């Protein structure tokens, strides 16, 4: 069942699940999965983290991902989002979606894809070519 929040954005009662999150991350090119840091679902590209599923604030899944400076400024004050614990306090532009009911699946998919892209662009051109990302 979906609800509407201000701005006509649909939200679900339950929010995004770890299975849905993992499906999105798995669909991105050259990704690897590892469970680490106390059972978090960690996704990497070229050995670099681009998404973390875990570190719950509420009693529901939480998702942490890298964002552009502009997205960081916009998302940090949106309902259900916050600067990522540990990462943002060190000056890194990472956001945590701690309440998946506030974010439709396609919007989270977009942020995860963008995070993958940002991390990919931090890899050397040669390594991107080796991974088939060029």
From TrEMBL:
GO MF term list: DNA binding
Superkingdom classification of source: Bacteria
Signal peptide interval: none
DNA-binding in keyword set: yes
Keywords annotated in UniProt: DNA-binding
InterPro entries associated with the record: YjbR, YjbR-like_sf, YjbR/MT2646/Rv2570-like
Oxidoreductase recorded as keyword: no
One Pfam family named in its UniProt record: YjbR
Protein name: Predicted DNA-binding protein, MmcQ/YjbR family
């Amino acid at each position: 069942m979906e609800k509407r929040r201000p701005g006509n954005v649909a939200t679900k009662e339950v929010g995004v699940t770890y299975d849905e999150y993992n499906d999105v991350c798995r669909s991105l090119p050259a990704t690897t999965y590892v469970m680490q840091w106390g059972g978090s679902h960690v996704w990497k590209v070229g050995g670099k983290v681009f998404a973390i599923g875990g570190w719950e604030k509420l009693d529901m899944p939480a998702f942490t991902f890298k964002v552009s400076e502009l997205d960081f400024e916009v998302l940090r004050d949106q309902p259900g989002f916050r600067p990522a614990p540990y990462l943002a306090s060190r000056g890194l532009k990472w956001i945590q979606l701690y309440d998946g009911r506030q974010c439709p699946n396609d919007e989270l998919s977009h942020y995860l894809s963008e995070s993958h892209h940002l991390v990919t662009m931090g890899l050397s051109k040669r390594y991107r070519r080796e991974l088939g990302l060029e």
